[in-house]
Amino acid sequence: MTAITIDLTSRITQDDETETFSRHAQGQLTEEGDVTRISYAEEGDIPVKMLLKENELLIRRGVDSNNYSLMKFIPGEKGNCRYVVEGRRMDMTSVTNLLEYQSQDDGSRKLRVEYDLFNGLYLIGNYAVTLIFT
Description:
With 134 residues, this protein is mainly beta. It has strands at residues 2-14, 17-32, 35-42, 46-53, 56-64, 67-73, 78-85, 88-103, 109-119, 122-133. A hairpin with a 2-residue loop joins strand 1 (2-14) and strand 2 (17-32).
């Protein structure tokens, strides 16, 4: 495991409104062959775990089995997503428009994912997330 600093930027567009959030966190990065694992705590106490394979990203975020989200991203495909809040489950679908993971000239790594999130046929919003690991 390698200790990393994560700079996260998230842009969310819902209806005609767009919000951008930036966060910083300390985390861990592990690479085994073509598999990269990233873990960190969001807002200080919400664990986030990512599993990145070639053209596939899984993200689990949450504190326990009654409060978590599980998302799957594969470019050009629909992925099943699950949100559980206070034990109540909502199944959603993501459509991944972009998934990039690249090494940068300064030695950092950059992960970008852009996706649309649907509840049934209803578009909840468009999301663009960029993480830079140093």
